[in-house]
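ASSEMBLY PREDICTION REQUEST
Request ID: AP-0331
Submitted by: J.K., bench scientist
Number of chains: two
Total residues: 411
Priority: normal
Notes: Please return the full assembly, not individual chains.
Input sequences:
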Amino acid sequence: MMRNLTTAAEGKNYEMKDKKKLKIKQDEWNPYRSKWKAAIEKGLNILPKKEDNILYLGASSGTTINHISKLTSGIIFAIENSPKMAISLVKLATQKNNIAPIFSDAREIEFIEKSLFNKRIDILFQDIPSIDQVQILGKASNLVDKNCKILLSLKTQSISQKSPKQTALEVKEQLRKYFKIYKIINS
Amino acid sequence: MNMEQIVKINIKLSKENIKKAILRDEVIIFFTRVLEDLERYKSPNFYGRMKDLFFLFYPYSSLDDTKRIYQELKKSNLLSKEGLFIDEEEISYLKFFINNLDSSCKLKGSDGIKEELDKILAKLIRKYFSNSLLFLEPYLLGKLIAFVGGIKNLYRKPASTIQLIGAEKALFRHMLKGNPSPKYGLIYYSNKIQKSYNKGKTARQLANKLAISLKQDYFQKFAR
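STATUS: Completed
Returned structure:
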């Protein structure tokens, strides 16, 4: 449960009373709507600290970003390709003050690098269900430095029609050459 | 760079890029959906269609009430800075449709309006899809574009997929249970297939021609 300052997020919203008996609105971070919250319930302990900058590939209409923007005071760069989803993302960004929407394909890193303005990025989140999901992550990792934490949500059915365990093993072999793998969580 | 400046520049840049990405085939999709409604129901009301049209021109507005939106559309001149941009000819077509609606958002009584809307759709298709018009009727061409949600999704598809658009239920029944495979989808109602003796063969030939001509039309009129 987190304190609701400006706009209500998706899901249930509650009203509670403070110690001084003032009304507070709080809303729930639902694990069935957000993949980051679902990973936390399974045992991941990565959350943004104060003044962390985040790069989020595949932001969609911004349900997860709405919750995360309350935790940090740094900038969140949200990238989205479809115009209908990007319109509601821009609507959200005008109400908050630390979300920067970027309307572009995630493969064009030259355009993304211009709009970052040399900010150091601490957490990179990737959520793009497509065939070349691993190659996109490889390209985007040129934008960050050594100490960055990377979260990848993998959809095995869009990569190949084999069994999910086998595809996950193949992807793990590819990633092991370049990255240091910290934890793997199964749904 | 300051943090507020970075956020402001990115919002301004992405608003400009979104405006370029909204194509003019949305007007064609709107008119075919109106004609589909008139076929299906006796006297439909168009509050839902008006809401779709309003958010094409003013995508960042915070209005929610449908009756309020309908009154706002009657006043406005359909020239927007942030949304879809169209020329004077298309504005006059949309104005003609909006002026023929009464206070409860239904069509006024006279019968000639439906034929007039058919003519408007034929003019729009002749303007943007002059190559594909040689093979298929304008109403069916509009139905194909509206079914997949825009010309940007349609022109990339291969000929065998265009042949079977609209017959997904029969196709998956064939793949799962082994029933005989479908030979045509929405294309079936065109004049060429209705006349021909061997219908499966004609549908394959027609879909092959369409796949080439749709690519011609997209790169002539829509691509930047």
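REVIEWER COMMENTS: Chain B touches chain A at residues 1, 3-4, 6-7, 9-11, 13-15, 17-18, 21-22, 59-60 (CB under 8 Å).
SIGN-OFF: pending second reviewer
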